[in-house]
Amino acid sequence: MATLPALPEDVVDLTDSSLYINRELSWLDFNARVLALAARSDIPLLERCRFLAIFTRNLDEFFMVRVAGIQDAIDAGRPPSARDLMPRERVLEQVNATTRDLLAEQYRILRDEVTGALEDSGIFIVPFAELPSRALSALRRRFEREIEPVLTPLAVGPGLPFPYISPLSLNLGVVVSDPDSGDSRFARVKMPPGPRFLETSAGWVLIEEIIEGHLDRVFPGMAIDGTALFRVTRDADFSISDEADDLLGAVEAQLRRRRFGEVVRLEVEVGVPERILRELSSALDVSERDIFAMPRPLDLTALFQLANLDRPELRYRPWEPRTQARLRGDSRTPLDIFDAIRRKDILVHHPYDDFMTSVAEFVEQAGEDPDVLAIKHTLYRTSGDTPIVPALVRAAEQGKQVVCLVEVQARFDEERNIRWAKALERAGVHVVYGPPSLKTHAKLALVMRREGDRVRRYVHIGTGNYHPTTARLYTDVGLFTCDDEVTQDVADLFNFLTGFSRPPRYRQVLVAPAHIRDGLITEIRRVVEGHTPEQPGLVEIKVNGLIDGPIIEELYRASQAGVQVELLVRGICGLRPGIPGVSDNIRVTSVVGRFLEHARIFAFTVGEMTRYWIGSADVMERNLDHRVELVTPILDRVAETEVRAALDLMRGDTALAWQLGSDGLWVRVDDPGRDGSSSNSQDALMDRAALRSRSSHRG
């Protein structure tokens, strides 16, 4: 590894905490950028509803994991460990203050902008109290037939303990009294599963308001003295001991405990009666700091339902991913994907390139091909409509050796992955779970195929999960190659994870937790050492999060050496750009738009030569030290061209881009060109894929 010259003593200490941004506060800034999309009038109306819902879903997970982690660390008395060294109590104070400001803005957007626009488009959200009598009569019948039978009111009193409140469920707190005795009780009514909005002749009505309007049926003969909606968020994080003998059983046990995690947030509606608030805060053991009062409707993930209405004129223009030109067969000559890969490496960029005709096709053809001897695959997240798992099952049933490394600790997908793992095992697939202390996050599919007198390996290495649904919503890149050294490296990694041996020495790829950080630092230092005015150096990194201290230090040193550093960071960024003498050559851009930017790309340029890498790892301690990750070089010139085009379009984005200042504040670029138009990188990549598809058809 190259060694940088010693820095003069008067140079700024690059470990100084003031040079780093707090991770939690940076994440809230990312969610604020998501929320800003809901405020943009140039975005289709139902998509604005979707972004309001995404903002809530993101915040729920943030509290379940990150805020819960802060509270646990405070309770345990652990000092701050992040580079910014912000005391955890102060972090929690700022998180709460910022969250309240963001929630106020979310409801302002809904109230002042989105609701009126929905009405102008004929979509009415009608309060139950304002429904005309005809609609009320129809709802009464529907309540009696469909809703009332599944309601279970639970009162609190002698012999009736406070009920268990499941995480993120929506509940109605009710104060009920007996008109004869005057006896008063608190009761909870949990909202039933299913759609939150019910359609009536007058418009859409929230189910909680329908139930609230029929409490005379739920508590017959009783007086209703007060009601309030509430929702509870619980600690959902857990870890598995390195000594766990049965990883699957340990995860299942932790999942059962997760339902009963400590309460980290209580959401109540504004104007909650004091009696209800007192009952809740006492029974759930929450402090005033952890109580968030919001207007109705609580839990704006309900807006996903409206966002999915069949109103195409109120949604993004439809996009159908295109089949990558190299992977297009015809009626006379069906695609032989292995032949295509043998001719040249193939890079796919989802959702612009179709997941089904590339990644899924690769696994499906491997499963059916009689010359394929073995398939090895990682599975971190997938969905019920995945073609991957059925293809692996069919391959195993045909006598092929099939190994699937299932990560049963993938947060919030643990139960689904456990079900997949058991189904695969029943089909004869060799299922491996990996070491308890490391999540296997690498995205790998390896195929061994008999060809003449040799066995050739083929691999797919990706940045995203093998998940057909998110492949239409997330931007990810993937490489198909049969390069001998890259495929041998992937085979060695699988053997290391499934067998018992020392970590191998890799020829081309970088693997975490052993090599990725050192490999990236080596590349940064190579650029620094080769940088001259005549042959300027350039470091480009596109990731979801950049928070790793040692790599941030190297980027600061590169900037001090005059190297231009371009960072495309979707979410968390702990680096401060633009600090004189430290990071004045660093620019940090975040592109937040229709598709969730998810690809991890690294490019290191000296003069006319650039080395490109893609893989599964973000520049975060958890990825580099606590996960199995793999990053591969791009060795094909055409594939390099595709990566280059994507980076250039994103760096030039003026429609979806935000830039980070040295003060830690993000500012929307919003810089139309001379013709008054903005450059939208995601639209441009869709247009590019469509143009390539038309050109190849004409050819």
Q: What's a quick, concise take on this entry?
A:
The protein contains 19 helices and 26 strands. The protein starts with 22 loop residues before the first helix and ends with a helix. The chain has 699 residues and is α+β, with helices and mostly antiparallel strands.
Poorly predicted tracts of residues: 1-10, 240-245
Q: Helix/strand-derived class? A: alpha+beta
Q: If you average the pLDDT, what whole number results?
A: 91
Strand residue content = 15-25%
Largest sheet: 10 strands, mixed
Total strands: the figure is 26
End-to-end C-alpha gap = 47 Å
Number of helical segments with 4 or more residues: 19
Q: Specify Rg, calculated over alpha carbons.
A: 27 Å
Q: Sum up the overall morphology in one term.
A: globular
Itemize the secondary structure elements and their pairings.
Layout: H1 23-38, H2 45-76, H3 88-120, H4 133-147, E1 154-156, E2 170-177, E3 184-190, E4 197-200, E5 203-206, H5 207-212, H6 215-218, E6 223-234, H7 247-258, E7 263-269, H8 274-284, E8 291-294, H9 303-307, H10 337-343, E9 346-350, H11 356-368, E10 372-379, H12 388-397, E11 401-406, H13 414-426, E12 430-432, E13 439-440, E14 443-451, E15 454-462, E16 474-481, H14 484-498, E17 510-512, H15 516-530, E18 537-543, H16 549-560, E19 564-569, E20 586-591, E21 596-597, E22 600-606, E23 609-615, H17 621-626, E24 627-633, H18 637-651, E25 657-660, E26 666-668, H19 681-698
Parallel strand pairs: 7-8, 10-11, 11-12, 13-24, 16-21, 18-19, 19-20
Antiparallel strand pairs: 1-3, 2-3, 2-6, 4-5, 6-7, 9-16, 10-14, 14-15, 15-16, 17-24, 18-22, 20-25, 22-23, 23-24, 25-26
Helix pairs in contact: 1-2, 1-3, 2-3, 11-12, 15-16, 18-19
